[in-house]
Amino acid sequence: MTNKITELFNIKYPVVQGGMIWVSGWKLASAVSNAGGLGLIGAGSMYPDVLREHIQKCKKATDKPFGVNVPMLYPDIEQIMDIIVEEGVKIVFTSAGNPKTWTNFLKEKGITVVHVVSSVKFALKAEAAGVDAVVCEGFEAGGHNGREETTTFTLIPMVKEQVKIPIIAAGGIGSGRGMLAAMVLGADGVQVGSRFAATLESSAHDNFKDTIVKVKDGDTYLTLKELAPVRLVRNKFFNDVQELYQKNPSVEEIKELLGRARAKRGMFEGDLDEGELEIGQVAGLIHEIKPAGQVLNEIIEEYNIVLNSSFPSL
C-alpha cells in the first residue's frame, strides 16, 4: 500500500498510532512501527529525561521510523525539542499550539512535521506555517478535543477542499472499515488512538484498559469546555463535574475541582473513580485487549477485504 503518507514517513501502511498521554510509551510505539505503521511516543506526559529514555529504548526496539507527539503547551518545550534533535528523531507531530512556533526550527533540522487541527481554519494556518501534513481530528476523538465539535467525517472533506498537503484523519477510527471510509472522503491516512490504548503494549493501567472494553455508545462525553474540551468516560469524577455545573461555577471553581494529575491518576494509575478516563467514542467497538501488531494487521486486513468487495475495480 503506497500513497502520500507511506512515502512521507517511509512506512508500509498509512496508519499512525496516536501519541496519547500516559498511554503511548516506547513499547507501544515500537510495536506499531514494527508492524508497518507509524508509532508515536506521547511526550505530553513525560519529563524531558523520561522522554529521552523512551526515545532511546524505542530506537533499540525498532529499526523502523517512529515519531514523537509534542503538545506545545508543555512547560519544558525547549528541552523537549532539543532532546528530539539530539536523539535524531525524524518525525514530530505537534498539537495544542501555533504551528509557526516550532515548524521552521524542526524542518531546518531535517525533521518531518505534522500538526493536529480541528478545523479548516487551523488546517490552513498549519499549511501556511510549512508543515508536511495535518492530522484532522474530529469531535469523536478521546482526550482533548477541538472547540468546534466538528465530526471527523464532516471535517475531512472540508479540509480536503482547502489544503494541498496530505491529510491524516483522526477521531472515531478503529477498524479497517473506518479507515476506508476516511480515505474515501479524502484522507491520505488515518491516526488511531483509542484502539491502540487497549493493547498489551499500551502503558495504560489494566483497570483503564478493562474499562475501555466495557464502554458502550453514550458512555463518553465532551466536558470541561471552559478550560480545554476533553472527552471522558462517565465516572465519579465526571459526575462531580456535572454536579458542579449545576451551580454555574466560575473557571476558578472548575480548576479547583479538576486539581492536578487527574489524567495520570485515571489512565496510568488506574483510579476509576477520581481520575480522568480519556477515550474516544469508538471505544464502543473495542471488545478485547490485543497485541498492537495484531490490531494493526486486523485493520489492514479488514480494509482490504471491504475495499475489494465494495470497489473491486480499485
What is the name of the CATH topology of the largest domain?
Answer: TIM Barrel
Strand content: 5-15%
Radius of gyration: 18 Å
SSE pattern: HEHEHEHEHEHEEHEHEHHEEHHHH
What is the strand arrangement across the widest sheet? 1-9-8-6-5-4-3-2
Number of strands: 11
In round numbers, the mean pLDDT is 94
CATH-level-4 superfamily name of the largest domain? Aldolase class I
Largest sheet: 8 strands, parallel
N-to-C span: 12 Å
Helix content: 40-55%
CATH classification class of the largest domain: Alpha Beta
Going by helix content, strand content and strand pairing, the class is alpha/beta
> What's the tally of helices?
14
Count of discrete structural domains? 2
